[in-house]
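Lab meeting notes turned into a lecture example. A postdoc, R.K., suggested we walk through two folding results consecutively so the class can see how the record format repeats. The first protein's sequence and structure tokens come next.
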Amino acid sequence: MTAETSYHFHVMRRALEEIDAAALAGEALSLDALAGRMQMSPAHFQRLFSQWVGVSPKRYQQYLALGHAKALLRDRFTTLEAASAVGLSGSSRLHDMFLRWEAMTPGEFAKGGAGLEIFWGWFESPFGPALVMATEKGICGIGFAAEAGAEVTMEDLLARWPDATFTEDPTALRPWVQAAFGETTGEARLYLIGAPFQIKVWEALLTIPTGHVTTYSEIAGAIGHPKAVRAVGTAVGRNPISWLIPCHRAIRKSGALGGYHWGLPVKRALLAWESARAEAG
């Protein structure tokens, strides 16, 4: 990342935080107000924001409105069984991010991470500070600290694999992280560490196209357990690889966002970001 790109990245992250804080208060920020807070001219800020997010600041704020999830459910609802049958997953995260993944075997999972070396590092993301963890096979954990805080986020991911060996090495992770957050066109590799039922749920999440949503009950049906909606919700909540395994795309039938492990403001930002990029594409 060049110095100029890094600077613009941090400006856009701060702008998104300002927009989200205003949205939670039921307010919208004018272009002049946002540009002033970023110490830029309105024209320069509008151009830069549109380049990074894909739409204007005004349009992006509309995606953060409380009714956006209901609109997604109405206009971009994905029936997972039908999507699989017609190959809709071809436009999903798997393909538009050149993402490859493999899963740990049930026997390996039962060992609690024993024998695994997991590398970790902190990175800036469009959604605030991100803690990323990975084995030599791929990213196994992404946690967002904007709401939970760095200490809680670290404790949360460390507890997922209590018997693993953890080594701080952000340099080794950087290429995968840059691909994960769209800074490069490289390949992001994943390593799914979970119980067999959880991995089935996470596989289903990976088939939801970018900019679309589905419901917990749809996921339950797609994995062959239509009555296990509550268990599906738990597995969605335990997804360790936020953003790349898109648990933020699972919402309730009513159009309510439901829960999100790293905080609902982060979930709203993820959905708004994806909607903006999908529209721009």
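The second example is placed directly after the first for contrast:
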Amino acid sequence: MTQTAASEKNRLKLYLITGLSGAGKSSALKVLEDLGYEAIDNLPVTLLPNVVDLVLSDGKQDSRPALAIGIDARTRNFQPDKILESLATLRARDDITVKILFFDSSNETLAKRFTETRRKHPMAQDRQVTDGIIRERRMMDIIRAEADFLFDTSSVGIQELRQTLSHQFEREHGGELSIMISSFAYPKGLPRDADLVFDVRFLQNPHYVADLKALTGLDPAVQDYVAADPRFEAFWTKISDLIFFLLPEYKEEGKSYLKIAFGCTGGRHRSVTLAEKMAQSLNKNGYKANLYHRELMIKE
């Protein structure tokens, strides 16, 4: 969106928090509220312009908090197409910046969460939970396609979600690029919200070394073994050059969040080693990178 009369600094920041029921929207609102955002949940879309005008009318540009508004299938007269129309009108204004945060998760994970908490899905009515999930997903697809941020919480615990949001949206205020580096196991699925994914399964595998099998990529012995692969240095140089080339380009383009994922077979040795090394390299060169090792966080 083209910058017009109001500078970016003076614009009111409006974040629409939406997505599938059970995917983490309520937790996200609480995190943003803890960060100083003014959080409002389940607000009818028709009232959005009124809330924006009310906040802008106070004249407190320097101390004005950003708005985090929760909207989902529970909202009265919920119609995704009408929501997008309202957002298009708001995006056209030169006194606010609008971004959509969409929270998603696999159908299986959502069904499990509703079953464990014994909650009724808002779209299920008198049918099975899975029917409600499928119905809601179809309804939300057009909003998901317009999202500025997509968070897939299928394999993410509440603590990691809090860390990710806290890190990213603290950095948002400073205009810096927020970077998350993660490791994962291919057999357990790719992280669906990753921007860049690197397959490191071609490197020699510590899993087949008796003294290293029980260790992880957090251990120096494993890191040394992986780095000793004759192909490691060339690979590391190429991906480092690529990432350090892309980072300033992404920032210039306006991207505020980047997730880089390294995958291997078990998600415990090679991918962890590369993720650790990349985070260290980024931090050493003035960037701030968070780390998340998916398989190491999962209890067997």
